[in-house]
Structures are given as C-alpha cells and as structure tokens.
Amino acid sequence: MITLEHYLALSAMIFTLGLCGVMMRRNVILVLMSIEIMLNAANLALVAFNKHMIPAADGSVGPDGQVMVFFTIAVAAAEVAVALVIAMLLFRRLDTVSVDDVANLRW
Amino acid sequence: MGSSWLILFLPLLSACLILFTRKSKGLSAGISIAAVWAAFALAAQHLPAALEGGGTWAISESITWISAGEWTFTYGYMIDGLSLIMLLVVTGVGGLIHIYSLGYMQGDPGFSRFFACLSLFMYSMLGIVLSDNFFQIFIHWELVGVSSYLLIGFYYRKNSAAEASNKAFLTNRVGDFGFMIGILMLVFATKDMMPAGSGAGDFRAMAAVITQGGWLDQTAFSVGGGAWTLTNEAFLWIAGALTFMGVMGKSAQFPLHVWLPDAMEGPTPVSALIHAATMVAAGVFLLGRIFFVYLPSETALLIISCIGAFTAFFAATIATTQFDIKRILAFSTLSQLGYMVMAMGLGGVDVAMFHLTTHAFFKALLFLGAGAVIHAVHTNDIREMGGLIRKMPLTGWMFLIGTLALCGVPPLSGFWSKDGILHLTAHPPEYANNWLIIWLPTITAVLTSYYMFRLVFMTFFGKPADEHKYDHAHESPVTMWAPMAVLCVLAVIGGQLVGAPETLESFRAVTRPPGTPAYEPIHADSHTVLHALMIFGIGAGAAFIAFSRGWVKPAAVRKMLGPIPKLFDNRWYVDDIYEWIVAKIQQNVARACNAFDQYVIIGTIVNGSAWTTRAIGSVVARYQTGSVRAYALLFLAGVAALLAFSL
Amino acid sequence: MDPVLFYMFAAGMVLFTLLTISSRNPVYSAIFMILSFASTAGLFVLLDAFLLAVVEVLVYAGAIMVLFLFVIMLINLRTEEQEGLRLNPLAILAAGTFLALMSRALGDLGPAVTSLPNELQGSPDLIAETLFTRYVVPFEAISMLLLAAILGTVVLARRSKDA
Fold it and tell me: Residue B80 pairs with which residues in a beta bridge?
C-alpha cells in the first residue's frame, strides 16, 4: 500500500535536494532551477494531502489541494520570468553569472 | 476686608514700587518710610482694644490659598496681644531705622536698592508676626532669610560680604530643615483631631487639640504591630525640639550662631534692624507663638532653657576679646537672645517678650550709635578710637545710656526686663533646677557689664589712639541722631512704662499664653536693686580698672589666664570645627558621590550600554557578507531553528 | 500495479533531480529537469489529479523550462570548468538537519488526513467549479500578479535609452 507517508517522504527528499542545489551551485540559472525543484516538491505534497483528506459530511472531497497547486504553478511561472530577466540584466552588467561576484551589499 | 491686611501688604507694595523709582532716591526712600509708618499706625489703632481685652483678645482673617482634598492651606493674619507687641516693635523700631538710613546711606550708589530690600524685609517679618498657621509662618520664615541674605550681602562686590551672606543663609537653612520636619510631625500628629474646616497647621486649632485632655497619651504611631510605640507625648517633645532648630537658626543659638557675627558685613542700619531688634527676635516670637507645643513637655523646655543659658554665657565670653565695635555688639545680641530663649524655656513667655521689646530699644540705639561712630571715623576697630565723647557728645552720651540700659542699671528699661529673667532663674521650675540655669545667667550679666564698658571706655573716653581719625570725627546729621534720640527715650522710660506693676500686669496678660504657670513679678525692692547694682558694679569696675585708668594691664591678665583668652579669641573654635567638617567630611562625601556618578552611572550604565550595543552590532554586522549563498544558508538555518522550536 | 508505478516514478524523480543539480552543463540540467517534471506528472496521475498532471507538463515543462533554455542560450552559458556541485560540508549538514526535521514534522499527521487514499475526482469540470466559486478572489489576484510579472519583465528587459 502506498500511504501518505510515502508521498511525503518523497516530497521531503526532493525538497532537500533542491535546497542543496540552491546552496551549492554558483551559477544563477542553476540556483533558479533548484528553486523550481523545491516548489515542485511542495506541489507534490499538496496534491498528496488532497488525496488523503478526510471526506466532508456528505462523503465528497473537494479538489482544494489541486486548486492550490494551480495557484502555486502560476506564481512560480511569474516569479521565474522576472527572475530570469534579472539574471540576464546581471549578466549584461557584470558579464558573469556567478553569484559569488555580486556581493556588493556587504558591511 | 479689614484694614489690617494693609499692615502686611503696604511694605510689599512699597518694595514693588521702588523697582520703578530706582533713579529717584528721594522717592524710593519716601515710599519705603511711608509704608512702614503707615503700618505702625494701623497696628497702633488696635492697642486700646488689646489692653482692654486682655489675654483673650484677638482679631483675625484668612483666605483659602490652596484647597487640595482634605488639606486646606490658608493665608491670613491673627493679631492678638503677643503679635501686637511684636508688630509695634517691628514697625516702630523699623520706622526709626528707615529714617536713620536716609542719613547713613547718603551717597551710596545702591540707595534705592537698600530701601527696596528693607521694604521686602518688613513684609517678610510682618508676615511672620501676623501668621496664623504653621505653613504661612514657614514661608515668611524663609522670606526673611532671603531678605537677610540680600541685605547682608548688600555690598556684594566685597568678598567677605558675599561669603557672610552665604553663611547666614546656609546656617539658617540647616535650622529650617529641622523646623520643617518639626512642623510636619506636629501637623501629622494633630490632623485627625482638627476641627473640620480649619486650615492646615492653624495655631489655635492645633493648640486646642494638643491641650485637650488625654491627647498626650494617645499613640502617635507604632511599629511592628505594637512592638514599639511612640506616644503623642514623646512625639511632641521630639517635634518641639526639631521646631526649636528653626529658632536656633534664626535667633542664632549655639551651635547655629556662627552666622551672626559675620552678618555685620552688612550696613549698620541692617545690623540694627535685622540682627538686633527684629529678625533674630523672630525666633523668640515663634517660641511664644507656639508655646502650646512646649507647655506639656518638660524635656523640650529643659533643652531650650539650657541651650539659651549656654549661648548667653558663651557669647559673652567671646565678646570680651573682640575689637570690632560691631562684632562686640553682635555677640552682645547673641548673649541677650540667649537670655530670651532661656526665659522662654523656663516658662516666662511674658518676661521674654518684655526683654525682647526693651532689647530692641537699646540694642538698636547702640547699633545706630556705632554706625554714627563708624561713619565719623571710618573704621570699625576700637583700638583706633578714643576720646570721641568730646567730638561727638550727643552720640556718646546716648550710647552710654544705651549701655547702662543693657547692663541692667535701674531704673532704665533693661533693669526691669533683665532682672525679671534673673529672678526667674533664681527660682526655676522643677525640671530646670540645675547649676547651668541658676549660675550662668548671673555670671553672664557680670561679663556683659565688663565688655560693654570696655567698649565704651576704649571708644569714647581716654586718649585718642589715632590723632588723624580723631580730628576727622564729627557729629552725625539730624536724620541720624533723631531716631537715636527717640530710641534713647524709650530705652530710659520703656521699662517704667511697662514694668511698673499695673502696666506689667496688662502686658503680661496680653502676652502670656493661656495655661502658662504664673510666677511672682519683680518689684523694684531694695534687694533686687542692690543685686542689679552689684552685678553692674563688678563688671564695669573691672573694665574701669583695666581700660580707663590702666591700673591693670589687660595683656598681663591675658598671660595669667593662659589658654582661656585664646579660646575666646577664636570664638571657641566653633567656626573652625564647622570648616573642618565641611572640608573633610562634606567635601569628601561630595567627591565620592561625584565619582559614583562619573564612573558608575555615566561610565558603566550610560557609556556601557552604548558600548555594548555597538559591540553587538559589529558582531552581527559580520554576517552581512553580501554573498547570496551565505544568506541562503542562514535562511535555512533560521527555518530549521523555527521548525525545531515548534516541534 | 500502483506500488510499482509509484516506485518507478519516484525513483525517476529523485534520480533526475539529482542529475539536475549536479550537472556541469546547464543545458543538461535543464533537460534533466524536464524529465523530473515528467515524473512528477506521472505521480499526479497516480493521485487522480489528471488536469494537474497535464497542466504540469504544459506549463512547467513546456513553458518555464523553455524560458530557461532561452535564457541559457541568450547569455551564452558554457560548460563550467570545475565540478558543478561543490560539496560544502556546512550546507550538507544544514540540509541533513532540515531533512530530519521535516521528516519528523511530516511524520506527525493530524486528524484531518488519513493514511489511506480516498476517492478523488480530478476532472477539469470539478476543478473549474471550485476554482470559479470558492477561489474566485485568489484567481483574480493571480491574474493581477501575472499582469504585473509581464509588465515587469518587459520593462526590465528593455535596453536603456542611451545604450
């Protein structure tokens, strides 16, 4: 039997992998991709929860979790668009895509 | 609104007006003099009614000043026999001195300022005399201190004058501290029983509470649920003793006497008015006013009489070695004040007030005379004078009469009042039956005759010590000797007027507070007269031998007495002790407090918190590396922490 | 059938994600990510979220990744010289801690969910019904957000006037 815990464990693992990507890659584009991975893992968790919700009084289960995922996807898309534009501008300005080179906001 | 309000406010008005008439000397003086004599007239109008009414006559009025919850502070006046006598003395003698100042302060650039300060002083002093409650009297008490400060430091450019006025104010302040605590204690102890609607600290209301039966045995307060209680009786004598501190400050009793000799830095009219006749007498007046506080407690009365007796003796000893004419008179004043306070302590309120009155007459006369002498020879030192009676006969003879009055020679006024006191000390009440009271006053009287005649002989008789100054000397103008003449007349007949048995009875009836024990008044019988003449004879005789004829050289006597003259010279070293206390103790305490402030409060707390904040800030600032990845790591760490915390 | 499919898709997802974050070539990373999304879509189907699976492929794999590839091309991203994934011990520790904590959190499931699946309908009409009735306000908000994103992108990507 595949239970909720399976899905959640998977989601946690993917999330952590995305996290590692964010922390350990130097390339801006790769960092953004890792963020997408994390969002994806969250979506998976949402849908899994939706499937395993306790039904309402009349036995029906609304697709609330899936609607939330809808929204997450939309937001992710918007965010990626803007983030990529910024990355491009960064490249134009500094001619590098390494995050280590943009450490101007320092003490 | 009774006309008696004007008594209080005319001088105040005068002081304010003089602010605007500073340029015109005549106008300033005129306003001031007019105010004083108007006050005298207004006070005198009550005399017939007072004499008829006796001990129970009183008129009063008051207005509510502050009303806060259950406390109502009033401002008003109360004229009864006691205050009427004081009023007449203050305004009468004060008025004469105002006229004298016209002549004395001629040519002084601060002429108008002087009269303004005099008027301010009159207002303050009259306020004390007329007050009907403790708080009002305290306010005026302080006001008098301020006026005294302004007048002592009149020649403010002189260092010694400025220091003297500071000393006076500070010493008074110490006394007032005790006074205030005493007042608060008394008000606290009686407040529950005060009749509704009476002002806070009202004298008559409080007297009624204290004298009602059984109040003394009630508990003032107890500590620890009855483990240690303080009855009203004990409370009363402690409060009385504290209130007496105010008297000690104002009337210059030992040990708060140190300011009076230095106060001679002020102009002579000031010395005459404030430090002989009126302000220093305020303490004595206060004792009479609040005698109901002391009446039930013998401990307080004992303290008062002993301090008074000692002060009288102590001041007299110092006066024997002084060479400054005004200082001699200052110590003489101290001595006589001691007599008055002692008399109060022995229950003789009326005798003390009588002596206050006569003392005002002859002491003011003596000071005015001294002022005339100083004015003539431009020096205070009696060693530079001599034989002045030939050059200034009027002043000289009046001065001599004043001296005789002071020494208690019958039938002058001083005899009646001083010997009244000496009679009292010979038969003291039970609690005061000790050698201090019985012997010291008599010894002091002998010393008084001695030092006063020493002064007279060295100043007015004999060969002039300084020819140049002698030639310069001249008689004083009319404005100066006329008031002296009036005072002289009063000094001669004042005693008879009041001291003769019939008038003395009414005087006593008027001034004696209800409940004071009665005692035998003096008669001018042969025994008393002989006693007085003997005292005078011994003292004056000794001075005659030493200073007039020169048969006994003072220097030789000095050597013979060893260290004692040195003690008197240095005023029993009291000033030096105080200086040592201030320098060693007070300054070091101040320094310690300053150090505490610098290092603990500013250094540690204020600067320390600033330093700590900056240190924390710089530690935290190190995390702002600008590196995105570091930030990401920190985010993660934060989230992990939150997660761990919430699980 | 279910467990097999699940494990297959799950393994694929994990593998492809791992490859994504450790590739040296960014294009390879993008491709692996697309494959990862595809596995996710498969998992969605297993969870009866049919519409969502399709949307995932269309939007995520189709649009977003294409965008990524465009940008990679535009900035001419080369293969990096060094190893792509530099193992940072601190980061590994943090991630491990995080994983542990998350597992602990997700392990304590409350009464609102059961471990056993229930009957779910993931058809478009059902989702549309919920979306346009209960969630209409967030829906409108999202459209605003997308508008803002479009505008922002256009403005940002413009060449400056004096360039």
Answer: B58
**Which residue do the tokens 């200086």 mark?**
B579
- Residues from B contacting C (CB-CB < 8 Å) are 633, 636-637, 639-640, 643-644, 647
Query: What is the structure's pLDDT at B505?
Result: 63
State the fold for domain C1-78. Four Helix Bundle (Hemerythrin (Met), subunit A) (1.20.120)
- A49 close to A4: Cβ distance less than 8 angstroms: yes
For residues B214-239, average pLDDT: 69
- pLDDT value at B533 more than 90: no
- H or E element, residue A77: helix A64-94
Residue window 39-58, chain C: list those with CB within 8 Å of chain A: 40, 43-44, 46-49, 51-52, 55-56
The answer, yes or no, to whether residue B225 has pLDDT greater than 60, is no
- Cβ contacts below 8 Å, chain A against chain B, sum to 31
Contact B243, B179 (CB under 8 A): yes
CB contact under 8 A, B640 and C105: no
C88 and A23 within 8 Å at the Cβ level: the answer is yes
Residue of A15, A17, A22 for testing the chain B interface, max B β-carbons within 10 Å? A22
Class (C level, CATH) for A4-94: mainly alpha
Per-residue pLDDT band for C38 (boundaries 50, 70, 90) equals very high
Q: What is the DSSP letter of B237?
A: H
User: Which residues of B are less than 8 Å from C98 in CB distance?
Assistant: 636, 639-640, 643
- Contacts of residues B497-501 at CB distance under 8 Å and 24 or more positions apart, as own/partner, are B498/B354, B498/B357, B498/B358, B498/B413, B498/B416, B499/B354, B499/B413, B499/B415, B499/B416, B499/B417, B499/B420
| Distance separating alpha carbons of residues B333 and B312, to the nearest angstrom | 9
All structural domains of chain C with their residue ranges: 1-78, 123-163
**Chains contacting chain B through 3 or more C-beta pairs under 8 A:** A, C
Half-sphere exposure for B189 (CA within 13 Å, toward CB): 32
3-state secondary structure of B200: coil
Helices (H), B263-324: 268-272, 279-289, 291-294, 298-319
Q: Is C159 helix (H, G, I), strand (E, B) or coil?
A: coil
Q: What integer is the mean pLDDT of C47-64?
A: 91
Question: Per-domain residue ranges for chain A?
Answer: 4-94
**Which tens digit of pLDDT belongs to each residue from B152-203?**
999 988 888 999 999 999 899 999 999 999 998 888 877 777 776 667 778 8
A101 touches chain C (CB under 8 A): no
Return the pLDDT at B229.
66
- Residue C158 is given by DSSP the state S
The three-state DSSP-derived secondary structure of B562-578 is CCHHHHHHCHHHHHHHH
Q: Would you say residue B228 has pLDDT above 80?
A: no
Nearest to A107 among B624, B629, B636 (CB): B624
Q: pTM for this one?
A: 0.68
User: Is a pLDDT exceeding 60 seen at residue B502?
Assistant: no
Q: How many Cα atoms are found within 13 Å in the side-chain-facing hemisphere of B197?
A: 1
